[in-house]
């Protein structure tokens, strides 16, 4: 810094000096500042030294703590080891205590048991033996050994010996006493000894003996009841279900035994033993039911009826008899009559449902007993399986299947015969659209299906639904016969108006063709009504099934569904039958009348002057006449056809009218005024037909309306206002091809061919 | 699931113990059931198969052979498209009952129903009914014929696939959408059982084309 200064210049030096002094001052003040901080730093330093000392203490403390902890844990471990050994000691002590108790009891038992036997105090004796048997015999032997080392082996093994002998004696005694009680039919004693068997370790014997006793009693009771059943039934005016009542009482007897004795057995024997009793009872039940069924078959002549029905069916070869054949058959008294079977069928359904309910009850009771036992899951499953096998193979189950089989045979016969009868006795009341057989047939079918539900058998229900479907197929063929023959035509206007007045006055004259005509219409209505009834039938049946069988298995549900689906197929057949009838009606009723009416169109000129137009409008126009004719024609059918059939009829009529009229138009020529009139006429026709039915016929009229629009054009060029994409959303799209449009335009004599050719379509 | 072109009902009938349930289980579940009891009433299985590129739903009704279930089982005949009448080739009485079964079929089934006579249990070596006898009987009564073993899975798949193929042909010709005649003959069962025993006891059931189809259909339905 000095070297850089010009020392020669005093001024400069002066100023430099000042600068240096300034700097010196600044440095001094800095230094002072730094020195002033020294004391703070010193005190901080001191503090740090102090804390260092404290930290040393912490370190030694924590070392101490850790050693204490490990010490504690050692202690805890040794404590827990001690606790464990205390536990073991205690359990040994209690085992010991138990053994001591056992030994004391053993002594007491052995002392008491002989006394008890002598005093015939079987309860006490059995209780003592029960106590003895509850001691683990192996432990007892070991204890005898242990005690033996102290020299008193004899007293323990003596006691055991005494008790073993007493047990044997007691077992024999209880059996003897029980048998005595049975022989004396002393129920109180029977129940008294029944409770002793399990104490003596004789569970199986006890229940078997008891079961045999009960069966014996039941056999007597059932026999008595069977003998008096018909008298009682007569007295109670229940003769028609006498055997169902007897069977019900019988099954109730058996069910009651289970119901009453289940708690007793569970209390004294424990769970899991009921199946033994149930098996014994089932054997007896099989025998008793057999007697009832034998009586039933004999009294109700079941075998005869089965044979008669089978023979009758065979003679029919599975075909529905023709009506004449059937009438002859009806006279044949060999064939069981539906009304005679009615009561019997009811009895069969009751019998079947009682057995079904009995089995359900038995299964539920025994199952719950098995579930409550202390066996493992696998063993329980096996037991339940065994129960099912026993019940399924029981004679009662076979009898039940036979009852169902008989029921189904009778029910089918009942259904078929009743349906045939309904067809034969079919009556038609004037003013009705359908004849009596539709109501009757569906009433019968519904009754039969309902009845099948009361059997409580899914198999039975399904079979009856299947039979219903085949019965309906026969019914449909009966409906179809008059439809096949067609609607009688060839009537003159006179005969035609005769029907009309007959229908109106509520009496049909019996000319053959009139009869045939009304028969035809009636069958057509029957078929239509039947589709509706059938739909209702399966809907209600589905509901009934849900109510009767709330928990069907998946397979059962599928079987049921598939059987009901069969009814749907029948409905489709019925619909086809209606359509068939409609086409018949069309060809013989609609076509022959309609064509001459429409062909009148040719008798009018469509090329008119203003004057002629005025004349034309003054007189009766073509369309007025046509509408009057159509209206008269339709009113013939309006009230005699069912609404659905009438709509279908109008629909056919509309199609035929439009196509025939279209044909006539295409064969005519028009001028401007002719086109104008045509357009008015088509509008009138459309609005008339729309008014006749509940649905719109507009769609069927579209082509014709479009034809009229074209023929009503002022000029050819005007067509572009209607034709083309611009108009598509306003009016229905064109049903006419460009070629057709040109042909139609050419019908206007006032349009030039060149103009028509030129127009773009 | 519900996408199938045809639904056919096939009903199996025949004496108790001839192996109807085993045939159905073999076909629908691919197993030979050990010691299942006699069928009670009817049982019902569904299997969808593919034949000639069409998905076919087969509703198979397994009926009980015991007499006392007859009035249940009869009610299923009417709606059947095909009836399989089974006997046991090692048990003469089951064969002797066939006329009774036919009478029943005649009485209750649709007259146009497809009927197939099946001699089951070919695996057994105590055969009592020679194949020709079965065949003769089938021919006489206008039935197709096949011998099977539910146990060894012999001809079981074939039985059902052939039935499906034949029913498809019938359905098509009824529809009016009849496939051209020559193909129909090639794949159909025109000679199902009528021409019998050329090479093996089970030949003559149908042509090779259809057999290939069946196997294809099968492998497809298994994957
Ligand atoms: N060896 C042999 N045994 C068979 C065959 N098919 C069935 N069985 C045996 O025949 C017995 C009866 O078989 P099921 O299938 O129950 O007879 P089912 O015709 O259904 O009898 P039901 O139901 O009473 O009408 C069973 O023991 C089967 O093991 C077979 O192909 N070969
Ligand atoms: Mg079976």
UniProtKB/TrEMBL annotation, chain A:
Any coiled-coil regions, as ranges: 363-390
Pfam families: COG4_C, COG4_m, COG4_N
GO cellular component: Golgi membrane; Golgi transport complex
Membrane-topology annotation of the record: Peripheral membrane protein
Keywords: Coiled coil, Golgi apparatus, Membrane, Protein transport, Transport
Keyword presence, Protein transport: yes
Domain COG4 transport protein middle alpha-helical bundle: 163-484
Subcellular location field: Golgi apparatus membrane
GO biological process, one term: Golgi organization
Alphabetized InterPro entries for the sequence: COG4, COG4_C, COG4_M, COG4_N
Stated family: Belongs to the COG4 family.
Protein name (record): Conserved oligomeric Golgi complex subunit 4
Lineage per the UniProt record: Eukaryota, Metazoa, Ecdysozoa, Arthropoda, Hexapoda
From TrEMBL, chain B:
GO molecular function terms attached to this record: G protein activity; GTP binding; metal ion binding
Known cofactor(s): Mg(2+)
Topology term for the membrane: Lipid-anchor
Listed SMART domains: RAB, RAN, RAS, RHO
Xref: PROSITE patterns: RAB, RAS
Transmembrane segments: none
Any one of the GO BP annotations: Rab protein signal transduction
SUPFAM superfamilies assigned: P-loop containing nucleoside triphosphate hydrolases
EC number: 3.6.5.2
Pfam families per record: Ras
Record has Nucleotide-binding as a keyword: yes
Reaction(s) this enzyme catalyzes, per UniProt: GTP + H2O = GDP + phosphate + H(+)
Keywords associated with the record: Cytoplasm, Cytoplasmic vesicle, Golgi apparatus, GTP-binding, Hydrolase, Lipoprotein, Lysosome, Magnesium, Membrane, Metal-binding, Methylation, Nucleotide-binding, Prenylation
Highest taxon in the source lineage: Eukaryota
Gene Ontology CC annotations of this record: autophagosome membrane; cytoplasmic vesicle; Golgi apparatus; lysosome
Keyword Transcription: no
Subcellular location as annotated: Cytoplasmic vesicle, Autophagosome membrane; Golgi apparatus, cis-Golgi network; Golgi apparatus, trans-Golgi network membrane; Lysosome
Main localization category: membrane
Family: Belongs to the small GTPase superfamily. Rab family.
Function in brief: The small GTPases Rab are key regulators of intracellular membrane trafficking, from the formation of transport vesicles to their fusion with membranes. Rabs cycle between an inactive GDP-bound form and an active GTP-bound form that is able to recruit to membranes different sets of downstream effectors directly responsible for vesicle formation, movement, tethering and fusion. RAB30 is required for maintaining the structural integrity of the Golgi apparatus, possibly by mediating interactions with cytoplasmic scaffolding proteins.
PANTHER family: RAS-RELATED PROTEIN RAB
This protein's name: Ras-related protein Rab-30
